[in-house]
């Protein structure tokens, strides 16, 4: 699970600690969690700009992530890790 990976990692691994995800944009959190690439975030943002919607919903609609991935990222963004 993601939390176990970052909880046991150090700075050399390149993974941010959970506190490093708090308050970051959702696309950034999903990228840091390894769920999407930067290219996918840019594509999702372009889609969102044209069609509207929440970025998490857009990423699910485009098939980049599962709803559970968005929920985990939102939790990390809020500083909750359970």
Mean pLDDT: 82
**Rg measurement, Å:** 13 Å
Secondary structure tally: strands: 0
Supply the number of helical segments. Answer: 5
Low-confidence stretches: 1-13
Instruction: Give the termini separation.
Output: 11 Å
Compressed to H and E, one letter per element, the order equals HHHHH
Tertiary shape: globular
Q: Structural class given helices, strands, pairing?
A: mainly alpha
β content, as a range?
A: under 5%
Specify the biggest β-sheet. none
Amount of helix: 55-70%
Structural domain count = 1
How are the elements arranged and paired?
Layout: H1 2-7, H2 26-32, H3 38-51, H4 55-61, H5 67-78
Quick structural overview:
With about 80 residues, the protein is mainly alpha-helical. The protein has helices at about 1-5, 25-30, 40-50, 55-60, 65-80.
Describe this structure in words.
- Helices cover 56% and strands 0% of the residues.
- The protein has five helices and no strands.
- It has helices at 2-7, 26-32, 38-51, 55-61, 67-78.
- The chain has one domain (2-78).
- The chain has 82 residues and is mainly alpha-helical.
